[in-house]
Structure formats: structure tokens, C-alpha cells
Amino acid sequence: MGLKKVIQPDYREGVDRKLLNIIRDRFLLINQRRLERTQQALPLRHQATLDLLPLFFQVNHPLLPGYVSRDTPRSVANYVPDKLILRAAQGFSKTFKYKAEKRLRPDILSLFMMGSIGTIAQSEGSDIDIWLCHRSGLNKNEFALLRRKADLITEWADELGLEIHFFLMDANHFRQRQLGGVDKESSGSAQHFLLLDEFYRTSVLLAGCYPLWWLIPVCDENEYDKFAELLTQKRFIRETDVIDFGGLAHIPKEEFVGAGMWQLYKGIDAPYKSVIKLLLTELYAQELPDKLNLSLEYKQAIYNDELDADDLDPYVMLYRRLERYLKSRDEQERLELIRRSFYLKVGNNLTRNSATKNASWQRNVMARLVKDWQWPEALLKTLDHRNTWGVPQVIKERKAVVSELTHSYRFLSQFARTHHLKAHINADDMAILGRKLYAVFQRKAGKVELINSGIAPTLHEDHLAFHHQSSQPLSADANGWLLYRELDSAADVAFHPVLKRSTSIVELIAWCYFNGIVSKGTRLSLVSGKSTMTMFELQNIINTFNQLTPYPLPPVPQVQFRQNHFPLHTLLFVNVGVDPMAEHSARGVHKLSDRNDSLGYSAFRENLVTTLDQISLNSWHELSVQRYELGDTLIQCLKHYLASLVEVGDHPMPRFDVRCFCPNRAVAIAKRVKILFTDVVDAFFSAKGILPVRYIIEMDHRFFVVQFVNQQPRLTGYDNLALLMRYLEQPQSSYAPIVVDRYALLDQPKLKLVFEKSRSGTIQVFFYVRKTEADLYIVDEYGSLFSYSTPYHSHQSLLIPLYRFLTSILERRQMHQSIDAFFADLVLEFCEIKAGKGEREYRVEKKQLFTDATAFFVDVQAIGNYDGVGELLFDIYCDEQEFSVLEYGDQLIPAVAHYIHSKRTLGEPYPCYLTDLGLPQRLDQGDYQVGLQTVQYLQYKKALEDKLNEALQLLAG
């Protein structure tokens, strides 16, 4: 072995061109070895593809891959194809002839491969990242043509099975730190010098100019620009021979935070590769600038004539540096994780038989490293059989990976705070990275944890056993579910660890499905205990996931993280493990009526929806499971579903599916639940936003009203119709129509008809005559409903007093409002409800009133005011005669009744009606109410009329 010749040039004392050539040739020697190793690892057809790439950018020929036009930028600096390459090119076109154009200014300065290519980490599946370095000054059209050419070559290579990514680079722009945003293959604004560090130590020159950086000694890196200018301006080197991306003496601390966050982002899908790079970021943050970065360490080794390609392998150098760092900190567990990550990244299974003579250089290097690590054979076998890892192994490994990622996040955060740093990553990119980290690692109630992000190729289990906890010894009253693997017999439970526990079997199934643990080939077993869960249900739930949701979930588009998450898909499972008609079946009780509604079934009006399991997937691909099994399960589920839709905003409504596999009426139950949810959503959500609707649901002898208040759903229950009607009288802040569920109020067809016919901008009076009585339904300007029954004598005697009263109210309100106010345009409308042909069929017929008949009625006016203690009292005027509460006190109503009775010459018993009512404007202290609503006048009108008519009955009687 010859003596190593260490080069220590001092350009201050003069530049030796011969020495410059020696330095360049050393780098080119390592470059050639890396290029040879790249070719050795590729199949023959891919080797030829790589050889031809520079030629494709050298010329524009219509029959060669990547041709766009003759105007596309071309010609690679200092590139001269050899005969073998030209012969290969003629395989595309026999007429192809290469003609050198020496005077043509090259548009392509260099082609560099970078990353794992040509390293110990290169595998058959490795993609190739290529920096396509073009000259500065390309216009937009030229740049677009070159981009298109690169894309076409990528497509051509992809057809051959070789994955190539081209990155168009302008060295001048790069030195000025003009980078793009975050995408799948780029770190965006997160790093610059760290990217340059990786480029200098991993790049392989395919063709074109070599890096000027090679020629600047490590000791002069701090004055890189000065010596770069010296070499080029003084013409010690030809400027056309080199490309300059800048020096690397200093990496700003701020960049470690941004680059670290980027690696955390990548670590979600490729943890083993990312934990290595994250540790390098930590190491740099701790050791720089006191120690050299890896690229300078690599350059110094070449200057020191240390040209062993194995030792200079970028990944081997990286590992050695990390090992020294962790050993110095005595962090053995982290070191073991890094070793496992490195071994799995290299992917060279050492336990697989391989002849020593034919062993690849990667295998030999890896074997030497593993020997140094003193790994037992069992560990090697475990790592080499990663594709057979089960759930326990993956969960254990995931804990180690997540622990390291968490450690890195905390270190980066602390480092930024300690040094008062702002990361070299823009706010938009930081938000994207943070949101993805949150979506994957943040624990939330009901969230399904995805445990296999890049840890094992598959988690498929051959056998899974689902056991209800009540089947376990000493757990007869328990109500949860347990999941086992490889459990041949239920009697062996005591000898097997529980893989997963949950209160919901649907959550267990979802966890298995979305982690790839269960598949079509998995053998299933079920022990139901006190549950009525069946194998039929179990298999159908899995089949439903297969039909409706993909596995694995596709990557989340980057654009989704730029905005708040919103729901994409909701899936409901009804009555899992429950028979809602079990008691009836046991007693032999059968349906006693024609009521088929699953929410009010048979004469018992029973709700057949007992439990609900809701699976929700949002736009960040967070998956959650919520079980509803206590109280009003359907109503609670509906409420939370509606609340989630508020987050949808301008996006399409999420997909919604319902499934039920219980023993009785499963299809009808699922259909009914889906209809209900769909109808409610259609009633509230429109292109204009959330509509101010009140939606009535009837279920299990009860009524529920859905209404949005402050953009959130409110669901209120009422035990009977009377309580519901009292609620519907309540004032509203704006017009809020009443929408009735298609299966609700079937016993109240007239009421449903009133709701269907009511509309904004009117006060509508609906009446239905029943011989000597009439039912009145008054829908006011905001949709509040006031209803009552009253004795009937004639249409005129029923409606004219009400007409006069409502007209007076409108006139009073108009005196307090502007001309163009809402109430100024209100229309009074009277409609008679008449029986139709069917038993429960009714129709509406508008009525025209003869208002000149008012002379036959006594004017009865009431004016309300608060007394000194806040009690509302009324003075009453009959035909302009005043009956004051101050004068009559408790005898006010009898006095008024006596006066009215005296005006009836024949003592007729017909009712007395108020024709006008005045109320104080601050009648209701609610902060939402600007003015009084018609329904409030009607409530006081009816109360006063009842008292007067009761007094009149006593006088008549």
C-alpha cells in the first residue's frame, strides 16, 4: 500500500493548476466508482437507460424519448457521447446521426444524481432523483419546454420500470435561496444549506460541469466566495468546466428547526429513513460549527487521500457520525433504533444464503457493520422477516419510533426557544407539517390509531378471535370486547394476551381493517357471551368496510392540510350485537297495527334503533369510532353528525351510509335511519348556509325538535303533543318554518298540512270546522304556531274579530317601524281546512272576508302596563268606555263581562273576542328580540278572552 498524499493547498500563496487537476481527479475517481456501483445495482435495461439520459438532453430528435420541439433547450456542457451510446440511440431511429456543434452554447450545465443511488442503501426499487441544472436566463417558454421534456423522459423511463424524478435547477437561483414550496419530493422552504450538504456528499455527476466546491479546501470554506472568484476570474480553471452552488461553511441554526419539522412530516410514512435524518439534524444542532458537517468531512477525506469507496459511502459516513454522537451521550436504546433503521433502510438480508464470492459490496459492508454491533442471530432473523411481523412486534417498534419522533419534536422546539430562533420554513409550510403530525400522532377519544406507518410491509393475521368480555371467567357482567390472535380454542384464552380491548366490536373491526390486520383470507371466530352478536354480523361489517372504504387509505392531498379538516365519509352500523325485537319474539307478540316506521313500530310505537356505531373519516384521514347505546341514541348520534357538518363549509357534503345486520327488520331499520339523516340534512343545509328551520321527529311516543342556534344543532325532546305545541308557540329571532319528518305526526294530518302550507311574509289563519267547534291554527310572521279550539257559530263570527285584532296589531307595529320594515309588507291570509277523499286527507281553501260586517261586534281593547312591582296589568276599553284596573282591581273582568252582557239584548251566549291589544315593548327580556311577535299578542289575547268568556258564562247561566 502506497503512502497517502495529503493535499493542503494555500491559495493565498499561489494556485497550482496541476494540484487543482489532482483534486478534481480524486473527486471524479470517487464519482466514477459511485457511478459503477449504481450501474451494478441496476438491471441491464435500466443501465442502458441511465447511459442514454445525457444524450436525450444533448439533442432534440423527433424519434428519441422526450422530444417536444426543436426549440427546446438542449446541449449538455462538455458532453461527448461515445460510440456505444450512439449505437444504442440508433435503436430508436436507424436514421439518427449525431453531429457535434462545438459553437453551440449549452443550455444544460450538469446532470447530477443524488440521494441513495450508488450507495449502500440503493436497492432494485430505488428511484433516481436527478438535478437537471440549466443555465440562467431561460425565459418562461424555454423553461416550460425543458420541464415538458423532462416529464416525457420520466414517463418513458416509467414504462421501462425505472422511476426517475427530475428537479430543474438554476445554480444562480439556488445560491440566492430561491426555492419552491413543500410537496411530496421537496422540502420546500424548510432547508437550503442542509439540502446542499446532502447534495455535496451524495451527488453523482452523470454529465456536464463538476462542482466548483470540490476545489475549495475545507480550511478556506469560510472564504468560499473569495477563493471561488479567484479561481474563475484569474482563469486558473475554465468557468465553463464548473458549476457553483455556493459554499457550506455555515448552516444557520434556524434551518435545523425547519428541516427537522420537514423530516417529522416525512417520518409519518417512512419512519426508519426519517429517524436517521432527524438525528443528524439534532447532531448538527449540537455539534456545529465546532465540528465539520458531513459534506466537509467527506471533502476533507478526499483531500487526505482517503479514497476507499466503502468508507466514503454517504450512508456509511452518516451512520458512523451518528454512532459516535450517541455513544458519547450513552444513549444505547436510541443507537439500537438507529442501527435497526439503518439495517432496514439498506434492506440486505444477511440471514439469506449468499455465496461469498458473489456477495455484493453492500452485503459485505453491512456484514462488517453488524459484526461490530454484535447482534444476535435471532435479531437478524427478526429484521430479515419483517414481512411476517405481527401486531405486537409492530406496536412495540412503533412505540420506539414514535418515542424518537416525539423526542425530536421536543428537542427542535426547545432548541428554537433556547436560541430564540424562527425556523427557516414559512408559516404556510409549518402549518401543513404541524397539521399532518397532529392528524397522525394526536390521541383523541374514539380515534382509531393506525399503527403501521411504514414499519412492516403487512400485518395480516391468519386467525382473529373476537370475545365478548362476559364470556370470560369472573366477568359475567362485563360489557366490552376482547381481540385475540392465533387462538385455536376458546379454552386457551388464559394463555394468550389480549391484542386489543374496546367497548365496541365495531371499533375493534375498524382497527383491524384499517391496519391491514384482517383480510379476506383471515379466519374468524366469535364468542358472543351475553351479547347476541353473530358471525353473520361480524363478516358483514368487514365486507362493508371492503365495499365502502379503501385500504390502505390513500395519501392526503397536500391542499387538505391548508384548511381545517372536514368530514369525508360517515358510516353508521345499527343494532350491532342487539336484537331490538328479542322480547317480542320470546313472548310470541306480533305486530298489532299497520305502523311500519322503525322509529315508532307497531301499536306500541317502539323505536327499533337500540345502538349505533358511527365511523367517521375526515379530510385529514383521521378515523374515529363513536358508540351510542344509552339514552336517546339516535338523537344523540344525529346531533353530533349535524355538528360535524358545520365544518364542511363550501366543500361537498360527506358520503353517508347506514348498515344493519340484526336478526329482525335489518334492511328496513337501516333504510329508515338513512332517510331520517338525509331528510334532516336536506332541510337544514343549502348553498346559502344553514337554514333557520325547526325539524320535528316523532319517535317512541315522543317528539324531538331539531334547530340550529348559533351555528350549532339543538335537539329538544317533548313527551307529548301538548308540550310540543307549547314549544312551537315560542317566539323566533327570524322566520323559522316547521318541517315535519315524513313519518312524524301521521295522526295529526291537519297539523302537517298547516306546516306544509305556511310561508314567509304572511300571517296565516287556518281553521277547521267540527260542527259546533272550530280548530284554529295561526302561523305568524316568524313561523311560530298558535292553536286553539273555540265554539263555532259562523265563519263571520269566527274570523271577523280575529281579522280586526290582527289588523290592529299590524297597525300598532307599523307605527314603531320604518316604512320598509319587515312587518310593513305582511299579508293576512285566511284558509279553511276541508276534508278530502281519504280518511286522513285534507286540503286547504283560501277564504275572502267581508270586513264591512264588523258593526255587529263590540270593540274590546286591552292595554297592558307593568305596575310598580313588575306585574303586567291590563286596562280594558269596551266601545270607548274605560275599565281601569286602578278603579276595579280584582273585579275588572266581571265588570267588563257585565257590560258586554248588557249590550246583548237577547242574552246570546256566543264568545267575546278582543279586537285590539297593546303590550309594552319590553315584554320579553330575551336579548334576541327587537320587537314583539304576533304569537305573543295571541297568547295574551287568548288568556284575556278565556277569563272574559268564563265570566260571561256565569252571567248567562
From TrEMBL:
* Residue ranges of domain Adenylate cyclase class-I N-terminal in the record: 21-214
Q: Which domain of life is it from?
A: Bacteria
Q: Which Pfam families match?
A: Adenyl_cycl_N, Adenylate_cycl
Query: InterPro entries attached here?
Result: Adenylate_cyclase_1 (IPR000274), Adenylate_cyclase_1_N (IPR024685)
Quote the PANTHER family the UniProt record gives. Answer: ADENYLATE CYCLASE
Would you tell me the protein name for this molecule?
Class I adenylate cyclase
